[in-house]
């Protein structure tokens, strides 16, 4: 069996088998197949999309190209969540400890931010000394002891995906839904979970801007995950405007800690999506069958201190100071230069474009254009007003922070372009557009 024969077969629209996908994945992981042949395969798969069965086989092959976590000794359900990324979407931070309170194991593998979308690992590292490069032995031990660990992908988990992901970016094959599906699910399948919740976003701040495209991706993810034996469902959520009030790293951590301490009013849209996401995770894990009862239980954990205590345990296990949960303002500071964005007239906020807000945060230093760029954890945006809110002339819409005056000016200029104030009241729509089962 030669790689050339596999390329020709897929070029001609013929289906591939598991053995052929295994050869591709192993070759990508070990470097035994040259980039030009891997690139040719990706283009052939782009022109002749993988079927659901092929996508499942390719996903499994990539997951098996390296080590896989195995939690057979953990006798409680094991679940995780993946978001396709957005602006202000720090849901994972309070989500992992909250779900773990319900007796469900959460090995949560996350990524870093790039471009206008933030990354969970960057937000966690706004906690001094928090270690996201968690050794596999510690992941196992931590899951057994406290039921949750928040970590980055190791070099040994789905290594084929790392190689193929970079080649997709260089060969114009990023938009292929089956290839996106295989990339996402290979890493999650390698985690050793029983179930997976997808948060597939649409809108200006999302990877896929059109709702219809996001729905197609969500359906493909759910179908493929089920073929691989994972209980899966997907939320399709609105990312036309930023989620919550915080855009950045330290300020998003501050918002999450306040919510874990029971503050349900700080960011109602964020809070509602957190409860919905956590409840759906309990459903797919088999822990409960009733969404309303699940939400009521989860709110109890937020109000009685259990969720905050669980996050303290995570921080302690992973090298940080758990006192940050009790005294977040002591540790999470804003950058020294501040600008207040004020309403220039009376009316309603009729637009707050998520992508432009995210790009403004990058200019401030809160994000990165290239993976090697350094993050300023204290830079960011705090939204005093949200889309649909009524404002009077002079009202503060946002507080913008940066450690450099030039960065501050650039971020403020772009943020202003994201805003529109109109006389007519605008209609707010639910964050969760649809649930794919």
Q: What does the model show?
A:
This protein is of the alpha/beta class and 437 residues long. The protein has three domains: 3-63, Transferase, Pyrimidine Nucleoside Phosphorylase, Chain C (Transferase, Pyrimidine Nucleoside Phosphorylase, Chain A, domain 3, Up-down Bundle); 79-326, Nucleoside phosphorylase/phosphoribosyltransferase catalytic domain (Pyrimidine Nucleoside Phosphorylase, Chain A, domain 2, 3-Layer(aba) Sandwich); 333-422, Alpha-Beta Complex (Aldehyde Oxidoreductase, domain 3), CATH 3.90.1170. Helix content is 46%, strand content 16%. It has helices at 3-11, 18-30, 35-47, 52-63, 92-100, 120-124, 136-146, 159-171, 177-189, 211-227, 250-260, 268-284, 291-303, 306-317, 323-326, 328-331, 354-364, 405-417; strands at residues 79-83, 106-110, 148-152, 195-202, 231-238, 246-248, 337-342, 347-352, 380-383, 390-391, 396-402, 419-422, 432-436. The strands form four sheets. The chain has a four-stranded mixed beta sheet with strand order 1-4-5-13, sandwiched between helices. It has a four-stranded antiparallel beta sheet with strand order 6-9-11-7. Strands 10-8-12 form a three-stranded antiparallel beta sheet. Strand 4, helix 10 (211-227) and strand 5 form a beta-alpha-beta unit. Helix 3 packs across helix 8 and helix 4 (52-63) packs across helix 9. The chain is globular, with a radius of gyration of 22 Å. The chain starts with a helix and ends with a strand. The model has no long low-confidence stretch (mean pLDDT 96).
């Amino acid at each position: 069996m030669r790689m050339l024969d596999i390329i020709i077969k897929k070029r001609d629209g013929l289906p591939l088998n598991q053995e052929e996908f295994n050869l591709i994945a192993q070759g990508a992981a070990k470097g035994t197949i040259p980039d030009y042949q891997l690139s040719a395969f990706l283009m052939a798969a782009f022109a002749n999309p993988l079927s659901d069965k092929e996508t499942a086989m390719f996903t499994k092959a990539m997951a098996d190209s390296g080590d896989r976590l195995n939690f057979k000794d953990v006798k409680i359900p094991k679940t995780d969540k993946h978001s396709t990324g957005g602006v202000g979407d720090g849901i994972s931070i309070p989500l992992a400890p909250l779900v773990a309170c319900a007796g469900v194991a959460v090995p949560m593998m996350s990524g870093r931010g790039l471009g206008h979308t933030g990354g969970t690992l960057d937000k966690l590292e706004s906690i001094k000394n928090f270690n996201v490069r968690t050794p596999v032995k510690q992941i196992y031990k931590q899951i057994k002891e406290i039921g949750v660990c928040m970590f980055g992908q190791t070099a040994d988990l789905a290594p084929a995906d790392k190689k193929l992901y970079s080649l997709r970016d260089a060969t114009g094959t990023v938009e292929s839904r089956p290839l996106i599906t295989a990339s996402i699910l290979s890493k999650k399948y390698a985690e050793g979970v029983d179930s997976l919740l997808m948060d597939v976003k649409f809108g200006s701040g999302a990877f896929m801007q059109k709702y219809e495209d996001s729905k197609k991706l969500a359906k493909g993810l759910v179908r493929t995950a089920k073929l691989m034996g994972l209980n899966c469902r997907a939320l399709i959520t609105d990312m036309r405007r930023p989620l919550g009030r915080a855009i950045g790293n330290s300020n998003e951590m501050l918002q999450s800690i306040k919510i874990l301490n029971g503050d349900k009013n700080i960011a109602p849209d964020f809070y509602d999506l957190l409860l919905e996401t956590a409840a759906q995770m309990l459903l797919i894990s088999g822990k409960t069958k009733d969404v309303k009862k699940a939400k009521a239980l989860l709110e109890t954990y937020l109000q009685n201190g259990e969720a905050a205590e669980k996050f303290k345990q995570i921080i302690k296990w992973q090298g940080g100071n758990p006192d940050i949960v009790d005294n977040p303002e002591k540790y999470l500071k804003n950058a020294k230069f501040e600008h207040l964005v004020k309403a220039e007239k009376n009316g309603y906020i009729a637009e707050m474009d998520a992508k432009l807000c995210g790009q403004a945060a990058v200019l401030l230093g809160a994000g990165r254009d290239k993976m090697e760029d350094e993050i300023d954890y204290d830079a960011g945006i705090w939204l005093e007003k949200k889309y649909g809110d009524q404002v009077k002339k002079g009202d503060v819409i946002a507080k913008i922070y940066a450690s450099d005056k030039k960065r501050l000016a650039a971020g403020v200029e772009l943020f202003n372009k994201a805003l529109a104030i109109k006389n007519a009241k605008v209609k707010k729509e639910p964050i969760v557009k649809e649930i794919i089962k």
